[in-house]
Amino acid sequence: MCGIIGYTGNEDVREVLLDALELLEYRGYDSAGIAMEEEDAQETTVCKCAGRVRDLRQICTAEKSRRGCGIGHTRWATHGGVSDANAHPHRVGRVTLVHNGIIENYRELIRDYELEGALHSETDSEVAAALLDRFYDGEPVEALKQTVSKLKGTFALVVMFSDHRGVIYSTRNVSPIVATVSKQGGMLASDLTALCRFTSRYFVVPEYHVLELREDSVKLTDFDGKTVEPEYLKVDWELNSSGKNGYPFYMEKEIMEQPEAIIRTIENRVKGGMPDFSMDGVPDSLFTDCERICIIACGTAMHAGLVAQALVKSILHMHIEVEMASEFMYSDPVIDSGTLVIAVSQSGETIDTLEAVKYAKRRGARCLSVINVKGSSIARESDYVIYTNAGPEIAVASTKAYTTQLAVFYLIVARMAHSRGIFSAEETQSFIRELQRTPEVMEKVLKNRRDIHLMAKKVLGAKDLFMIGRGLDHSILLEGSLKLKEVSYIHSEAYASGELKHGPIALITADTPVVAAVTQDKLMSKELSNIREVASRGADVAVFIKESLAKGLEGEFALFALPDMRNEFMVMPASVALQLLAYYVSSDKGFDVDKPRNLAKVVTVE
Ligand code: M6R
């Protein structure tokens, strides 16, 4: 969703801002803009437009290059359509502002402070600019505090005051801002991707504090006026790991990176063949003292939770629920001090998951999070964090984040099974050995990706499609189906194959291809019957099947053989295959695979 950048320093400010906005493009956006201090006057120039950063670059060329101070924004429309006027920055009087989040009470503010005449857009953000200008009498920090005291909702505000040259101000609630000072100057952003080029040191601006960023210093004060030392953290992502590395799309690159990513996830968490979370500081008591588990997450991360649910039930025989984070607080969840809440998130910033974690903690639960982005909001809010170490994931469609989340869940389940006396040491080690085989098994699938490309041709022209399977196969397909619909715009439904006869089979025709997964030995014969039911109604079926189960079926269906693993682990090769299927359909259709329409990588509004 919206991206923010701010820069004050010696380099050409226009270029720094535009380059950084390009790095933030992956978050998903529909318009972009920058504001820069004018060279000789206490004025600010604003350039903004609906469209891409490359469109913005074109309209900014008239601006003189200069060192100095500026802010930039990529907007994902929430309040007001996609238009030049609604793009940020918004300038009202001496205030120029960009905003992430939602100001829920913007209508009341317009009414109560009679701001209508100051507004030129339909956005809630411009209301914050107008209110700030109303309160501003030359003291930025006081005006910001006063403004924030009137705002309801989530916000990261980044502001320039035309009479305070060279300084960028910021304050926030929930929506994150990270900042740094390096030899090139002071920089802040909505996420680390934009800062990586400058430095590996950064700090997170705490909520309800005011940041004053200058080219060579930062000042952080709380709302009582007390100075606070920024807590610097280190990014351990290599700068070049966020490039495309020769691939046409990040999605393909990130799919291909999965074997390495899994190795990074597990290598330091296996000691003497046993799962070990000492590097994460996660005590065994977290796993032995809980009576039930509740997983909260959204989208792909929630699908990882569904696989974990199947493992917990079959191996640990424990009560477990997987909750959509966006529904969690409104569903009267059964959460107390006996509940281990596991929050799963790639970005660590998904607002629904973040709010759900806060809620669960208020109810006395202990919260462990499984996160990719270091130091992110959910990580900071949780009692314990296990980082997936997938490296930067830029494509909107999540791939390596998902399989590394699964790898963490295999480790957790094995550790729990052993610490709760369910697995012997030998059983635990054998389970972990299978996990360690995952990278080599994934490599085999990746090597045969041409065959998946051929399968993709089968579904290319479809408007609607079904994915069918039972048990773990159904969980795998929920994720495969999400992947396909988000990047290819094909309407795809993952259905438990036994349920098909209770309604949806009415939709099966020769124009409705079916993708099936058959990876679980004990479910195979029932799954095959369900596949034959759709085939006999004309559906063209593509089957992703465990290699050892494929014998004798070669002539009957189009098959892709998945290398054999223990049943619980078949989700790993199957997921890679389904990710590739979605990728090839999208790229063959000529879509912008990494930036599907309407979607954002980081979902920071409820
Ligand atoms: O950053 P998170 O893992 O919390 O994001 C959750 C979902 O928004 C995300 O998985 C989304 O569903 C992806 N676009 C799926 O590919």
Tell me what you see in this structure.
By secondary structure, the protein is of the alpha/beta class. It has 3 domains: 3-234, Aminohydrolase, N-terminal nucleophile (Ntn) domain (Glutamine Phosphoribosylpyrophosphate, subunit 1, domain 1), CATH 3.60.20.10; 245-436, Rossmann fold (3-Layer(aba) Sandwich), CATH 3.40.50.10490; 442-591, 3-Layer(aba) Sandwich (Rossmann fold). It has 18 helices and 26 strands. Helix 1 packs antiparallel against helix 2 (53-60). The longest helix has 23 residues, at 425-447. Residues 298-301, 345-347, 350, 353, 396-398, 482, 486, 603 line the site of 5-amino-5-deoxy-1-O-phosphono-D-mannitol.
Question: How would the blueprint of this fold be written?
Answer:
Blueprint: E1 3-12, H1 13-24, E2 31-37, E3 44-50, H2 53-60, E4 67-75, E5 90-92, E6 95-103, H3 106-112, H4 124-135, H5 140-150, E7 153-161, E8 168-173, E9 178-182, E10 185-189, E11 201-204, E12 209-213, E13 218-222, E14 232-234, H6 250-256, H7 258-266, E15 270-271, E16 274-275, H8 285-288, E17 292-297, H9 299-316, E18 319-324, H10 325-328, E19 339-345, H11 351-362, E20 366-371, H12 377-381, E21 384-387, H13 400-419, H14 425-447, H15 449-459, E22 464-469, H16 472-488, E23 491-496, E24 514-518, H17 524-535, E25 541-546, E26 558-562, H18 571-588
Parallel strand pairs: 17-18, 17-19, 19-20, 20-21, 22-23, 22-24, 24-25, 25-26
Antiparallel strand pairs: 1-4, 1-10, 2-3, 2-4, 5-6, 6-7, 7-8, 8-12, 9-10, 9-11, 11-14, 12-13, 15-16
Helix pairs in contact: 1-2, 3-4, 4-5, 7-13, 7-14, 9-13, 9-16, 13-14, 14-18, 15-18, 16-18
Bound molecules: 5-amino-5-deoxy-1-O-phosphono-D-mannitol.
Residues 298-301, 345-347, 350, 353, 396-398, 482, 486, 603 line the site of 5-amino-5-deoxy-1-O-phosphono-D-mannitol.
